[in-house]
Amino acid sequence: MADKPSRALVFYGDGLARFVDSSHTHIHSLASVASCGFLSLPHAPPETEKERIVREFSHLLDASEAYSIASGLKAKGSEHEISSLAQRFMGLKAALVTDSSTLTSFGKLIGLDVLQLSETYQKSDSSPSDAAASEFLRLLGFEGGKCLDVSLYDSVFVHIDVDNVGMIDSLIGSIMKMAQPGSEIAPRLHLSLVLSYGSVTDEDASVFPVKTPHEGVNSAFAGLVPRQSYTMRGEKTRDDVRDYCPMLVAQWQEGVTRRDLVDTLSFQALKKLSGNLVIPADRFIHEVAFKLWKAPKYGA
To answer: Which CATH number fits domain 7-208+224-291: 3.40.718.10, 3.40.50.720, 3.40.720.10, 3.40.50.10330?
Structure first.
């Protein structure tokens, strides 16, 4: 545990998990020093692509109730039913960087300040990834390699869509270069990379399953196997858990996160070698907020 609260930078590659390959060296370099695992999602209702984008992001921020109210899936009472992140996490100051207009509207609904990714990324012709990385760090109070006492935000979420896997790879490389071990930034920056599979098909169930081998086996001992924790919420069973195509997550902070055996950010590597295994996607924000001293620890 750090002796001061961290500041969190979260890169969310929406639908990018399918497209990461060996050429994306910075993504794999991060995974090789990070603590990795899966974030499980619930089964999706019939929906448009825009609805999927917002719904899955809402799970990352444990804001599915807000999404249900905003989308009309749950009857509206009054707007105060939708709690902001600041209300739920001890005054958490957070920003969302995205070019998605639908995600912009939802981000504002749950109290996020919203910035345009395209404007941030195009500030420099010579190295847009370095310029954007510097801006993200500045928002978190890291300037000139120093950690300032105050910052505009405790957490910055950067949403990058499916056409930009090269962008997220470059941004990771720039951030890792600026937050090298031994710097003032590295012990205070909690860096997360989350990659989702986007829209899924029935065929994906056999290609990217998260069930352990004994689950689903019809045997005399099946009833003796305890349910995995990601299928539970408190003492109640989560009946809608999608047991395939989870989000992939890698988290790194010098001297804080534990390194596992993962050396590439891929489904198979995480399933075989990750240290965190599977947690529900809606617990992700609680894990991050804990590092910011804004929430109690989730899990062990």
So the answer is: 3.40.720.10
Q: What is the mean pLDDT of the chain?
A: 89
Torsion of CA 132, 133, 135, 136, to 10 degrees: 120
Which pTM was predicted?
0.91
> What is the domain partition of the chain in residue ranges?
7-208+224-291
pLDDT at residue 53 in the model: 96
Q: Is the pLDDT of residue 163 over 90?
A: no
CA–CA distance, 51 with 127 (Å, rounded to integer): 33
State what percent of residues in the chain have pLDDT above 90. Answer: 73
Asked whether 88 and 150 are in contact (CB, 8 A), the reply is no
Angle, helices 165-178/128-139, rounded to nearest 10 degrees: 60
For residue 279, give every residue at least 6 positions away whose Cβ sits within 8 Å of its Cβ, in sequence order, or none.
Answer: 37, 38, 39, 40, 229, 230, 287, 298, 299
Of 72, 280, 261, 255, the closest CA to residue 299 belongs to: 280
191-236 residue pLDDT tens:
999 999 999 998 999 999 987 655 444 555 555 445 566 666 666 7
CA atoms of 206 and 42, how far apart (whole Å):
17
- Structure token digits, residue 121: 């990324």
Among residues 186, 167, 217, the alpha carbon closest in space to that of 33 is found at: 186
Contact in structure between 165 and 16 (CB atoms under 8 Å): yes
Rounded distance, CA 163 to CA 249, Å? 19
